[in-house]
Amino acid sequence: MEFRRINGLPPYAFAVIDGLKREARAAGRDVVDLGFGNPDLPSPEVAVDKLAEAAHNFRNHRYSASRGIPKLRLAAASLYERRFGVAVDPDTEIVATIGAKEGFSHLMWVLLASGDAVLVPSPSYPIHIYAPLFAGADVRQVRLDPENEDGTGGGEGFFAGLMESWESTWPKPRVIVLSFPHNPTTTCVDLAWMERLVSFAREHEVILVHDFAYADLAFDGYVPPSILQVPGAKEVSVEFYTLTKSFSMAGWRMAFMVGNAEIVAALTKLKSYLDYGVFQPIQIAAIVAMNEASEYPKWVAKTYQGRRDALCDGLNRIGWRVEPPKGTMFVWAPIPEPYREMGSLEFAKFLVSEADVACSPGVGFGPGGDHHVRFALIENEQRTQQAVRQIRRALPKLG
Ligand SMILES: Cc1ncc(COP(=O)(O)O)c(C=O)c1O
To answer: What is the CA(240)–ligand 1 centre distance, in A?
Structure first.
C-alpha cells in the first residue's frame, strides 16, 4: 500500500538499539539502559493524589477544554512569573498542549506550508526536523556542534550558521527552531545570545519557536534563559514549557505554548478542531504540581546532576574524554578515537552486545551526529557506575 508523508521516514536508528537491548534482556543479560530519554523518577506525590481524587469525580470524565481549563493556564502563567519574571496573559498568551511534542508538531501546521523555509538545528531532537517536513516545509538544517576549546561551535557557531543559512536561503525562512539546553548536543546559551537572535528576528520578521523542554534541568548554578525574558520577544516568539522533565511527568502529556498572542490563537484554533484537551483530572493534577510542588524541579535536577557526575567522572577516569553538560539529562559523548571509524550505529550496537550498555547512536539525530553517542541519565548512580565498569571491560583500546 502506498502512504503519504511517512514514506520518506528513515528507520528509527534508536529502534535498532532497543531491539538489541530487548534481545539481550530476554537472554537474561543485565543491560544498563542509558538509551531513550524516558525519565525514571516519580512524579510529585501531590499530583498523583490529586489525579486519583479528581478521577473519582464523574464531572471530570467529560470532554475538557482543548486550550486547557482556565485555572491550568493561570497556574502556568504564575510559574512563568515566579520562575522567569515574565508576565503572560493566561487567556491570550498561553495554550495547553498534549506534551511539547504534540504542540510543536501542530504548530508547524499553522506556521508552515509547502514551499516555506525553516531553519532547524542539526543534530536535532527528531521531531524538530520531521514536524516541519510533515507540514510540507523546506527544512534547512544548521549545524550545531559542541563547543570547541578554541571557542568555535556551541551557541556561537550555531548563531553564525543561522546567519549564513539566512543569507543563502530563498524564499527567506518563516521560522527558526531553537531548543536550549539542547537535546542531544547539550549546548546551552545565555540570555545575551537570545537577545541577539530576538533582535535579528524582529528586524527580519521571522518567527522563533523555542522548545524549552529542559528549562529546569541545569547544573552547577547555570540557569537556562526563557526566550520570553528578552524584552520584545513576544512580538516574534513562542516557547514550549513541559512538565515532562521538570516535574518528571512524561506519561501525563502536559505542556504549554507561551508567547505571541496571534500565534497562540492560531494554534488554539487548529487544536479546537483536533482534540478535546488532556483528560481533565490530569489538568487538575498539573495545576497542583505547578502550584504546590514548585520546588520539585530542583530535586529532579539535583538527581540528574549526581548521575551526570557519576557518568562523566567515570568515563574520563577510564580514558573516554567527555565534557560534563551544564544542562539536559544527557551526555553527548564523542566516540573515542580508536573506535570512531565504526560510526555511531555500529558503535552503539557494539556497546549493547559487548558491554551490556544501551545508548542512542548520534546518527539518529541527523547525519551531523554520527561521531557521537548520547547517554540518557535515566539509571541511578550505582547502575551508572556499573555501566562505566562494563564499558571499560568492552573497550580495551581506551587510552
Ligand atoms: C527537545 C525536546 N522536546 C520535547 C520533548 C518531549 O516533550 P513532551 O513529553 O512534553 O512531548 C523532549 C523529550 O525528550 C525533548 O528532548
So the answer is: 9
